Amino acid sequence: MKLFLFGYGQMGKEIEKLALERGHKISGICDPENAYKFDATAFADADIAIDYTTPESAVHNMTMSFEANKPIVVGTTGWYEQLDAVKKLCEKLNGTLFYATNFSIGVNVLFEMSELLSKMISQQDSYSVSISETHHTRKKDAPSGTAITLAEILIKNLDFVKTWKKLQTGDITENEKGVIPVYYSRENEVVGSHEIKIQSDIDQITLRHDAFSRAGFTAGTLIATEWVINKKGIFTMKDLFSNIS
Ligand SMILES: NC(=O)c1ccc[n+]([C@@H]2O[C@H](COP(=O)([O-])OP(=O)(O)OC[C@H]3O[C@@H](n4cnc5c(N)ncnc54)[C@H](O)[C@@H]3O)[C@@H](O)[C@H]2O)c1
To answer: What CATH number is given for 2-99+215-244 in this structure?
Structure first.
């Protein structure tokens, strides 16, 4: 496969390294802030694009890919307010989009476990629920896309919660009925940690995932890229897993 990389930051560089190890080629790289200007010929030559940039540029890069009939895999987070508009455009132009808030296999196991946990306690309103996440200080969006996905899973399944609220770890706040507090914290060099806690007067259950390196994101991104290359439509990790299992 010939890959076109949007973004040559931490993730872009790791994707390049692993892609070459897996026998793929890099047709071009676009990262104006790192002296890689967009090259239309290299883009046209690619089989598929991968985006690890910023929320603003990811939407632009997806639009350009749909218009050029080029499949795109998007790891960038923080653009989901525009998800509906992006989906509509992708469908209209018969494009291919694979996006994930988190490409790590381990985190997707956490998503599935959260689904099961919340279904099992869907009516047990003696539990209060909270989510917390910690990432490195360079992360631009907060809370993380992964924490938001976890909140959405819980809201979908729990009869006694309706919404979530962004808080910084350490914020003092009253427990609000029906609201999941989503705490974020930024600390040096933490790759990414996510925790769901449900607590009542009689017990507590914690689901937690800690990434030790970015290797999980990179491997998952390339597995998704290889899987989606000849497909049309909009896909997430759920589609990937349903095909594997
Ligand atoms: N989905 C996942 O599994 C996953 C995993 C890790 C990171 N992320 C997300 O991916 C994104 C990138 O993460 P990172 O750690 O590589 O960040 P980074 O800051 O190291 O790299 C982002 C790069 O994008 C470049 N860029 C900015 N505007 C651009 C544009 N218009 N065109 C091309 N390149 C542009 C920047 O110069 C920078 O080099 C973030 O949103 C992060 O939250 C997602």
So the answer is: 3.40.50.720
